[in-house]
Amino acid sequence: MPQTALEVHPLTPARRADFLDFFEHRAFTDHPAWASCYCHFPHADHRAVPWNERSADDNRAATCARIDDGRMSGWLAYEGATVVGWCNAGPRREIGGLFDEPEPLADRIGAIVCFVVAPDRRGHGIAAALLKAACAGLEERGFSWAEAYPRAQTKGNADDAAANHYGPLAMYLKAGFDACGPVGEHAVKVRKSLGER
């Protein structure tokens, strides 16, 4: 049977049910403990409520609210009607949960912060397709740079593939990103120009 063609679409309120269906049925079948995130971690105020005190229902509700009011930005990868991957990418100013220090250029940066690909669809180029769509979409939205924060090194085993939700460094370098320096102890900041603004 031929493989269904991959299509990538931006997240909109009309696609909220598809997003939730992916997170609740396919995204974390190999790591059920992660299913409570709903990709809210980068957006949460960790000073107000420690992450380990937030429930799945809290995170689901917060993400649904962000989707409904247009503040949750990203791209969904579909095979037919089924979502098989997700990339959280949008304004750098909206991901305060990842950084302690302010970024003076935040309004000009589109941040790519997370990839989730269904376990049985990893290794089929879905993350690379999502990255390409995210860069194109961020450029269309007027950002000057796309920025991401991959781990500096990965071991390449199955557990690492699942845990490498920031995207592999090699994928970014292949897509034309340049390394700009470390982020914390284990990650590196990479950035790609999206044109002069």
Q: How would a textbook summarize the main sheet?
A: 7 strands, mixed
Gross morphology: globular
> Beta fraction of the residues?
15-25%
Beta strand count: 7
- Taking pLDDT < 50 over at least 5 consecutive residues as the criterion, the unreliable ranges are none
Number of helices: 5
Widest β-sheet, arrangement of strands? 1-2-3-4-5-7-6
Rounded mean pLDDT is: 88
Fraction of residues in H or I helices:
25-40%
Structural Rg: 16 Å
The sequence of SSEs as H and E is EHHEEEHEHHEE
Q: Based on helices, strands and strand pairing, what is the structural class? A: alpha+beta
Instruction: Report the end-to-end length measured between terminal Cα atoms.
Output: 46 Å
Word description of this protein:
- With 197 residues, the protein is α+β, with helices and mostly antiparallel strands.
- It is built from 5 helices and 7 strands, in the order βααβββαβααββ.
- It has helices spanning 16-25, 56-68, 126-140, 158-163, 169-174; strands at 6-10, 74-79, 82-91, 109-117, 145-148, 178-183, 187-193.
- Strands 1-2-3-4-5-7-6 form a 7-stranded mixed β-sheet, with helices on both faces.
- The chain is globular.
- The protein starts with 5 loop residues before the first strand and ends with a strand.
- The relative contact order is 0.14.
- The mean pLDDT is 88.
